[in-house]
Amino acid sequence: MTMAEEINSHLFAIRTTGGQEKVVMRLLEAKANANKINIQSVLLVENLKGYVVVEAINPSDAYMAVDGLRHIRGQLRGELDFKDIEGYLVKKSTISQLAVDNIIEITGGPFKGMRATITRIDVEKEEATVVLLDAAYQLPVTVDANYLKLASET
Questions:
Q1: Distances (CA, A) of 144 to 111, 131, 133
Q2: For the whole model, what pTM was predicted?
Q3: Residue 145: is it exposed, middle or buried by C-beta count within 10 angstroms (0-12/13-18/19+)?
Q4: Cβ proximity of 59 and 76 under 8 Å
């Protein structure tokens, strides 16, 4: 096989005892190394409590790796597609999802919970200048983009 050929790996979601994901990850690594099981990676996804994702070229390697390990409660049927976990791997910048004139909600800081309209976006600084909708007068405020989310239209 040449480097140009794509290696087709398989992704499996393994259910674990809650809070034991790191332990399972270490156990899988140790078992794979000791028994020469061909596992490409084990992924611990912070937002996915009670699961680890195992990547293997051969599905039987993934089954052998998890078989008999402590804290493993089962496996989701079938395989995961890369798109299923891609959102967990690549942190999308909040600023890229915002535009001038968007109505947003502020999720942190002194203006938490307030709604505002974006008047300017500074992509380099990851900040947006907003005008608060609930204020008595129009006061432009610069807020870290990580504290902003698009307001749901109600």
A1: 11, 14, 18
A2: 0.54
A3: buried
A4: no
Residue scoring higher pLDDT (77 or 39): 39
User: What pLDDT digit, counting tens, does each position of 21-57 carry?
Assistant: 889 988 988 888 888 888 888 888 777 788 888 888 8
Non-local (6+) Cβ contacts of 15 within 8 A are: 50, 51, 72, 73, 74, 75, 76
Map residue 86 onto helix, strand or coil.
helix
- For residue 62, give the H/E element and its range: helix 59-66
Q: Which amino acid is at 124?
A: E
Domains of the chain from N-terminus onward: 10-89 (3.30.70.940), 94-150 (2.30.30.30)
In sign, the C-alpha dihedral spanning 76, 81, 84, 86 is positive
